[in-house]
Amino acid sequence: MLVGELAAATGVSTRVLRYYEEQGLLCPERSSTDYRLYPPDAVQTVRQIRGLLDAGFSTVQIRALLPCARGDAPEIELCPQVAALMRETLQRMDSAAARLDEQRTRVRALLD
């Protein structure tokens, strides 16, 4: 499948697909004319990447999570390293949410 076909199948721009390739998330082969050739399962891989990005993971973290991803949603097969990575991400999100709650409280106090 060519990059344009993968873009059409996933709704992700070709530019973003090339970025995923730069980040090591997609590994297309090259044709004799140097076109990117993606395997059929690349559609599911892109859906997994999007799902993990939506969950708040960075592309560096996703590179570690993808080998454990199953299905489009995706589901993650937990091993100790992956569980630790996910806990670390959740802790970072909790800290960011707490800071945001504190800022919201301060803005409300200024309005009162």
Give the mean pLDDT.
Answer: 93
Number of domains: 1
Main beta-sheet annotation:
2 strands, antiparallel
Shape: elongated
How many DSSP E strands?
Answer: 4
Order of helices and strands: HHEEHHEEH
Helix content: 55-70%
**Through-space gap between termini:** 59 Å
Could you name the ranges where pLDDT drops below 50 across 5 or more consecutive residues?
A: none
What is the gyration radius calculated from CA atoms? 18 Å
Strands in their spatial order, largest beta sheet: 1-2
Q: From the 3D coordinates, which CATH architecture would you assign?
A: Orthogonal Bundle
Output the CATH topology: Multidrug-efflux Transporter Regulator, Chain: A, Domain 2
GO molecular function, one term: DNA binding
Domain HTH merR-type: 1-68
Protein name: MerR family transcriptional regulator
Keywords: DNA-binding, Repressor, Transcription, Transcription regulation
Q: How would you explain this protein's 3D organization?
A:
- The protein has helices at residues 3-10, 14-22, 42-54, 59-65, 80-111; strands spanning 29-30, 36-37, 69-70, 75-76.
- The mean pLDDT is 93.
- It is built from five helices and four strands; from the N terminus they run H-H-E-E-H-H-E-E-H.
- Helix content is 62%, strand content 7%.
- It has a single domain, classed as Multidrug-efflux Transporter Regulator, Chain: A, Domain 2 (Orthogonal Bundle).
